[in-house]
Amino acid sequence: MQNFRNYYDILGLQPEATPEEVKQAFRKLARQYHPDLNPGDKAAEDRFKLINEAYEILSDADNRAQYDQFARFWKRPGFQAGAKAVSRVWNGWGGDRQGDQNFSEFSDFNTFVDQMLNRRAPATTAPEPSATDPYRPRTTKTAYTVPRTKPRDAEARLAVPLERAYQGGRERIRLEDGRSLEVNMPSGMVTGQRVRLKGQGVAGGDLYLKIEVTPHPFFSLQGNDVFCQLPITPSEAVLGGAIEVPTLDGLVKMTIPPGVRSGQRLRMANKGYPVEGDRGDQIVEIQIVVPKELTDSERELYEKLRQLETFAPRADLPI
């Protein structure tokens, strides 16, 4: 049989590999040979296409079962001699049992794969029948195509940083199967949300991206409120005043009341996260931070303040 390809060897796997091992091997090789990472490298591009074809066959249980069945027979005597010999050898092995497929219908391996993957074969012209062959019908030109299967939806996970989930907009993403797509992402995405990409699934079906908003080092979501902890100096806590606070929209000025306490929470209206059109607030928890190192001038001022201050926080201890 012409053009046979060992998809297990292509992915570096054994025939008994599990579906998870197939996926892991594909991801590793897809990253290595992806055209975006090997610009202008035709060999890498061809290898990438071969890796994708192998994954498309071995990741689908039905396709894999057909391929494994095909692989068990193609090297046996008679398969190299063409369709007629294949048919004779196949029937001699009991290939007409229920559930078996007669591979004699395939002229080569590519035809077999094209049918499994529902790839449309080019129209072909049958050769003129021989006048000495009484068993060949006297047909002229015959065009055929491989029928397409019904489109099927697919799902993929996509991790999105909080700022990008909030802003949305045009984004180039790379999927687990190695494809790179430019997508118009909606604003205000949340973990568990599904974004539909029309026509990007299997055989023209839709692809659904399941969104996971990754943790942020400063902001966290509490429903549709954004929570953060804001460090301030002792003098800012005592005197109060306007300070700049990071928000998802950038720096915004907020007025701290005089005498604010560490752990006290202040609310910034309409600076939270938009969920179903309802935007929450930003909750700012104050953290008073004491400096670990002082300049000589700062130390002198703190010494003078200690002599002048009348505040006695330990005067009313219950002992």
What keywords describe this structure?
single chain; 319 residues; alpha+beta; Helix Hairpins; HSP40/DNAj peptide-binding domain; 4-stranded mixed β-sheet; 3-stranded mixed β-sheet; 13 strands
Order of helices and strands, N to C?
HHHHHHEHEEEEEEHEEEEEEH
- What is the CATH architecture term of the largest domain? Orthogonal Bundle
- Highest CATH level, the class of the largest domain: Mainly Alpha
Query: Strand count, sense and closure of the main sheet?
Result: 4 strands, mixed
- What is the CATH topology of the largest domain? Helix Hairpins
Task: State the end-to-end CA separation.
Answer: 96 Å
Widest sheet: strand ordering: 6-7-13-10
The shape is: elongated
Oligomer: single chain
Write down the overall mean pLDDT: 82
Structural class category? alpha+beta
Helix share, percent: 25-40%
Please give the count of helices: 9
Low-confidence stretches: 80-99, 121-146
What is the β-strand count?
13
Strand residue content: 15-25%
Gyration radius over CA: 34 Å
Number of domains: 3
